[in-house]
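Handout, section B. The chain below has 421 residues.
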Amino acid sequence: MTLAEYVASLSQNPYFGAGFGLFGVGAGAAILRKGFQTSMLLFRRHCMITLEVPCRDKSYQWLLQWITQKGARQTQHLSVETSFLQKDTGQIKTKYDFIPSVGQHFFRYQGAWIKVDRTREQQTLDLHMGIPWETVTLTSFGRNKQLYYDILEEARTMALKQHEGMTVMYTALGSDWRPFGHPRRRRPLHSVILRNGLAEKILEDCLDFINNPQWYTDRGIPYRRGYLLYGPPGCGKSSYIMALAGELEYNICVLNLSERGLTDDRLNHLLSIAPQQSIILLEDIDAAFVSREDSAAQKSAYEGLNRVTFSGLLNCLDGVASTEARIVFMTTNYLERLDPALIRPGRVDLKEYVGYCDESQVELMFLRFYKDASAAQIFAKRVSEKKRDVSPAQIQGYFMFHKHSSSDEVLSDVDKIWSLG
């Protein structure tokens, strides 16, 4: 039988014909399916734009709040987020926000439909936040990236407005910074009364640093600034830093060097990722390390309690890997306990003593409470005549004790200042 006759006989075989037909249908369906998948892939690649925001990104919380305002009204599938608001009176009010839940949601923005995919990995945890790993993905038609830029910028502006006129305190949690407590109202700089000209001197120095980065670049000087405020407790060191942050419209990152588990690498990492426009505050720096001149036994016992080394701190402040565009404030009650290497120029650029009240400070504090100029002068003289050191905290405590008293009653009981302190 020739080849042509063999092929002709197969074509007349009903079983072969049915199988060939089924094969053809299957092959055609597979080709169509593959073509559809390829077409959809090309369509998504060239005609749609996607933005993925993981929960570790700084804009993640901003975006969730923005979706709450823009998208929660257009979906029936919600999850609740409970927060607390602190009023000016200090009263705490509970607030419930309804956020689009895990899944798909659609809403319109600037005339464009946007699909929101909120996914959560139950098997994967964010170790720093202690919550399941979550991602929000935005998808829309077109190729205009400006749409997503506008969304993120609007979300950032919305978040900043919530903290407008407030100072946010950050604390280190794991390898990241997290807001600590409620944002605080900015404290006016004039409410902290230091010796004449000191508050203005530090403020002017900070403003000069912030406004002149090019000066440092032109001279090859690292763009960072370190301050040390030292003096007895209760004299206004921390209060002034809080007020200064409000005046500069900065936030404060409080770092405890005595925290267990804080290593040199983690310290360096935290300083390098501190939130922008923030003051890094190292309080009571004398309690974190002993001087290199102290006994070896004392240093050995102390190092057993703290994993941050002194050399590690020095390198973070002024080493080759230290970050720039940074303001660091350190406070101490005992300047003599600090190692000279820690407070040398380059690590501490400005050292200022914040001490007990002089006569002018006492007079200004009296005027803040009682508005009686003649009585203020008398009170300040009576305090100075006692020849005893008095801190602003003691003076303020005395005024608080007499907050409903007349100025004459305040003048008659000056000796009580030291008993309250």
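Note. DSSP finds 15 helices and 15 strands in the chain. Compare this with the example in section A.
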